Amino acid sequence: MSIGLALGLVAALCWGSTDVTAALAGRHLGSLRVAAVVQLTSLVAIVALCVIRSSGLPAKPADLTLSLVNGIVASGAYLSFFTALRIGPVSVVSPVVAAYGGVTVILAVLLRGESLAPVQAVGAATATIGVILTGLVSDRGWRGTRIVGRGVVLALIAMACFAVLTIGLSGPIRSSGWLPVLLASRIANAATVWIVLVGVFATHGRGAAPLLAVATDRGPISRRTGITVAIIGGLLDITGFVAFANGLEQAPTWIVGLASSFGPVVTVLVAVAIWGERLRPNQWLGLAGIGVGLVAVALP
Question: Model pTM?
Answer without folding.
Answer: 0.81
